[in-house]
Amino acid sequence: MHSACADRATYLQRPDLGRTLDEPSRNQLLRHTPPANSPSNKLALIVADGLSALAVERHAVPLLSELLPHLDGWQLTPICVVEQARVAIGDEIGLALGAEISVVLIGERPGLSSPDSLGAYITFDPRPGRTDAERNCISNIRAEGLSYAQATTQLVYYLTEARRRQLTGVALKEESGTEELSREQSKKLKEG
């Protein structure tokens, strides 16, 4: 899929266009739009290049490989891969796919010491107009930062709590990591 940014220069100059899909991508999503009465336990996983395609290339698949076995009880929508995308692209995609929660895995701002840092942004009830204050973020997912196992533990925590409390963002903080998870969830994460 592709954002409404035709090229990288537009992506950098027009952040608003990186938050929405282009028309062919919208049409592609229409084929996967669920009926109105479908269950609300859907999770949309979106992989976006963001500001570091290198981060996505190196870390998205290993993180998903670690995460997917821990998503019992979730109905996954098709995983979407989007070029020239910003975090908020997950709002449009999540809404179109009827997702209860969206997770955007995105290449973060490259720096001198971390040009391959992956971020994960979790949004309950995704829809256009959501603000960053309504999302939770897990940053610095990479070999020299947060491991895939640690990121998975945090993601499972946020997904569990977001579903239970029906919210994400500043109202949902990671209180103390895995100890907030139920014993069963902690055991599953430790067993791998």
On the 0 to 100 scale, the average pLDDT is: 89
Percent of residues in helical segments?
25-40%
Largest sheet: 6 strands, mixed
Gap between N and C termini: 31 Å
Strand residue content: 15-25%
Structure classification: alpha/beta
What is the string of SSEs from the N terminus onward? HHEHEEHEEEHH
Cα-atom radius of gyration: 16 Å
Strand element count: 6
Q: Name the overall outline.
A: globular
Taking pLDDT < 50 over at least 5 consecutive residues as the criterion, the unreliable ranges are 176-183
Number of helices: 6
Description:
The chain has 192 residues and is α/β, with parallel strands linked by helices. It has six helices and six strands. The chain has helices spanning 8-13, 23-30, 53-67, 89-96, 148-165, 183-191; strands spanning 42-48, 75-76, 80-82, 101-107, 118-124, 135-141. Strand 1 (42-48), helix 3 (53-67) and strand 2 (75-76) form a beta-alpha-beta unit. The longest helix is centred in the C-terminal third of the chain and has 18 residues, at 148-165. The protein is globular and about 45 Å long. The chain starts with 7 loop residues before the first helix and ends with a helix. Mean pLDDT is 89; it is low at 176-183.
